Input
Amino acid sequence: MLFNEIFAETISEVGESWFDFYSIGHICFGIGVFLFFSLFYTIPKNKGKTPIFSLLFVFILTFVILIAWELLENLLFVEIGWKFEGRRDSWQNITMDIIIGVIGALSSWLFCHLIFTKGKNIWAYYIFGIIGFGIWIGVFIILRAVYFGY
Output
C-alpha cells in the first residue's frame, strides 16, 4: 500500500496510479508503431535508395500517435464504454503511458541506427522488434492474469 500512488496494487487503482499493468502494453505500442513506420526508412535504405521518412520523422509520428491514442482512449472509448471500468485515466497515468511508449520507440530507433551504421543485416532489426514486441505482450498477459486472478 505504500507505493500504490506510483504502482497500482489493486484493480481499483488501475488508471489512477502512475504505473499499472496496462503501462507495459505502451512499450509494445511504442515499439510496434515505430517498427511499422520505420519500414519507410529501412526498406529504401537497405536497397541503397533515399528513405521516404527519416528516423526522426518516424519518431515524431510515433510520439503523435501515442498522444492521439491517449486522447482516443480517454475521451471516445470512455464515452462508448470500451474503456476499462469506464473511467478516465489520471493525468499521471496518461503521462507515464506516453513516456513508456516513447521509451519503446527510442529503443527501436537506437537499434535501427546501430544496424545501419554498422552495416548489419536489416533482418536483425525486424527480428529485434518482433521479439521485443512479443516479450512485452507476454509480460502484459502475465501481469493482467495476476491482477485479474486467472
